[in-house]
Structure formats: C-alpha cells, structure tokens
C-alpha cells in the first residue's frame, strides 16, 4: 500500500501493473497468488507472476504495461495484437 500511495502522490494517473517477482522461489513466497490477484483487482490493475531466472512472463508483463500506456494515450492504431499469438508458458 505504501508504494501505491507514493506512486499516486508523485505520478498520479501513471499506468500500473502488479508484478510478483521470483516465481522460481515460490517455496519462499510470503503472498499467495490468490492474495495478489485480489489486491490487483482492488487496485484495478493486471497481475503477473514473473521469474527473471526462467524468463517467465517478463516480456508479457512489459508488453501489457506498454499496451496500457498506448491505449490510454489514444494510440490504438499503433497497437495491433497478433490474434494468432497464444501465451506460451515456460517452465524452469
């Protein structure tokens, strides 16, 4: 909550996503996936679990954030999602 408050104070209206980092260390997790999803819904943002070690959901999370920025600034014409593209799931 503190970080969200600081973001809203210093950069009001900036697009946000919620990222749970180090999915490869899930056995040490302090927040469940369900808790994070509920929190993201409360904030009105998309939630991603990522693992830089495994390169899991890194591109997808940044792509979603970029999509939100483009859509908010009226650049729909520049964003053409590949309708045939499926989210690929990678395992460590």
From TrEMBL:
Q: What is its main location?
A: membrane
Entry's EC annotation: 3.6.5.2
Identify the domain of life: Eukaryota
**Keywords of this entry:** GTP-binding, Lipoprotein, Nucleotide-binding, Prenylation
Which reaction equation describes what this protein catalyses?
A: GTP + H2O = GDP + phosphate + H(+)
Q: Name one GO cellular component term.
A: membrane
- What Pfam family is a match for this entry? Ras
What is the recorded membrane topology of this protein? Answer: Lipid-anchor
Q: What is this protein called?
A: small monomeric GTPase
Q: What is the lineage of its organism?
A: Eukaryota, Metazoa, Chordata, Craniata, Vertebrata
